[in-house]
Write a structure and sequence with these properties.
Strand order of the largest sheet: 1-2
Shape: globular
Helix content: 55-70%
Number of domains: 2
Distance between the termini: 48 Å
Strand content: under 5%
Order of helices and strands: HHEHHHHHHHHHHHHEHHH
Number of helices: 17
Largest sheet: 2 strands, antiparallel
CATH class of the largest domain: Mainly Alpha
C-alpha cells in the first residue's frame, strides 16, 4: 500500500488551491455503497467460498506485476492513435469531418461500430436513420463525430470478455460509455472542455478492465477446477484498479489534467478537495454506477443522489438513450 499512497499523496500546496471542488457524498447511497453495488453487478455472487491457496498466489502475482510498465505494455492494448489526434483537433480551427471519414473508411469494423453508435437515440436525437459515414458527418457534426469515433475505437479495449463472467466485459463497456456521457453533461454546465472530459470518462476504468483481464488469464493458466468468484475479484479491484488506471493513463501520455483526475479517485472521502476534472469524474462515475445498479430497484434513492450532487434530474433518462437505437 505504501507505493499507492506515494502515487496518490497530495501536497499542501495542491490542497490550498482555490480552484478545487469539495467532494459531497450522498447520505443514502455513499461512495462505498455505489462501489459495492457496482462490483456486485459486475461479478454475480456465484460462490462465497474463500480463495484457495493457488488463487491467492495468482492475486498476489497480479498485484505485483501490474506495477511494472513492461507488464502493463503487454496487458493493455496501445491507445488508438485516433484519440490523441482527436484531442489535438480541439485546438485546430481547420479540423474537418472529412479527415475523420478517411480514418473510418479504412476500417470496415470501425465503420460498423461508428454507425451503430451514431444510430443510438443519444447521439442521433433527430431520429433519421444514418446508413453511411458521409451522412454521419452531416448529421452528427464535428463534435458528435469526435465522440462517436472515440467510443468506437475504445470499445474493443474496454469490452474484453471472460470465461468466468460472460457479461462483465459488456457491462464494463456500458459503464465506461455512460460515465463518458455523464462527464460531458456535467462539464456542459461548468464551462469545461466537453470532449476532453468525455475521453476521460471512456478511459477512467481501464485499471478495472486490466486487472480483471489479467486475473482471468492467470486463473485460466492455473487450471484449477474451482472457478474464481466475487471474492476473487473484488478485493484486488478495490486496492489496485485506481492505481492501474492512473499508470495506464500516464503510459498513454494522456493530458495531465486527465491523469490527475483519475489519480484523485482513490479513497475519495466527504470533504476532500479535488480538481475540477476530478470532481466531474467523481460525480459522473457515481451517476453511472447508480444508473446501472440501484435505479431500477429504488428510483427515489437514485434521484436523491442527483439532488445531493446538484445534477440535472434528467441525466438518467439521457443515459437510457445510449442503449436505444432507431
Amino acid at each position: 500500500m505504501s507505493l499507492l499512497k506515494n502515487v496518490f499523496s497530495k501536497n499542501k500546496e495542491e490542497s490550498a488551491n482555490p480552484d478545487q471542488w469539495n467532494v459531497v457524498q450522498p447520505k443514502l447511497f455513499t461512495i462505498a455503497d455505489a462501489q459495492k453495488a457496482y462490483y456486485g453487478y459486475l461479478y454475480p455472487k456465484t460462490t462465497e467460498n474463500p480463495l484457495t491457496l493457488p488463487q491467492k498466489l495468482v492475486v498476489d502475482m497480479v498485484k505485483t506485476s501490474l506495477q511494472k510498465q513492461e507488464v502493463r505494455n503487454k496487458a493493455v492494448p496501445r491507445l488508438p492513435s485516433v484519440i490523441p489526434r482527436l484531442l489535438r483537433s480541439l485546438r485546430d480551427p481547420y479540423s474537418s469531418g472529412r479527415d475523420y471519414v478517411k480514418i473510418i473508411d479504412k476500417d470496415p469494423v470501425m465503420s460498423v461500430a461508428v454507425l451503430k453508435l451514431a444510430n443510438s437515440v443519444y447521439f442521433n436525437p433527430i431520429g433519421a436513420r444514418i446508413d453511411d459515414i458521409e451522412r454521419a458527418v452531416v448529421k452528427l457534426g464535428i463534435e458528435g463525430l469526435r465522440s462517436v469515433l472515440s467510443a468506437a475505437v475504445m470499445q474493443p479495449i474496454v469490452q474484453r470478455e471472460s470465461a468466468y463472467f460472460s457479461q462483465t466485459g459488456q457491462k464494463m463497456w456500458h459503464h465506461s460509455l455512460a460515465c463518458a456521457v455523464a462527464c460531458e453533461l456535467i462539464a456542459e454546465h461548468r464551462g469545461l472542455e466537453k470532449f476532453k472530459v468525455y475521453v476521460m470518462g471512456l478511459v477512467h476504468d481501464i485499471g478495472k478492465i486490466t486487472v480483471f483481464s489479467e486475473l482471468c488469464k492467470q486463473f485460466k493458466m492455473n487450471g484449477e477446477n474451482v472457478n474464481p468468484g466475487f471474492n476473487a475479484f473484488t478485493p484486488v479491484m478495490n486496492v489496485l484498479s485506481p492505481a492501474v488506471s492512473y499508470w495506464v493513463a500516464k503510459d498513454w501520455a494522456l493530458p495531465k489534467d486527465i491523469c490527475k483526475a483519475i489519480a484523485e479517485q482513490l479513497n475519495l472521502q466527504e470533504g476532500h478537495k479535488i480538481s475540477p476534472y476530478g470532481h466531474v469524474l467523481y460525480q459522473a462515475n457515481m451517476v453511472a454506477e447508480c444508473h446501472a445498479t440501484i435505479r431500477n430497484q429504488n428510483e427515489r434513492q437514485a434521484q436523491m443522489v442527483l439532488q445531493t450532487l446538484e445534477l440535472p434530474e434528467d441525466i438518467y433518462d439521457k443515459l437510457d438513450m445510449l442503449t436505444r437505437e432507431y
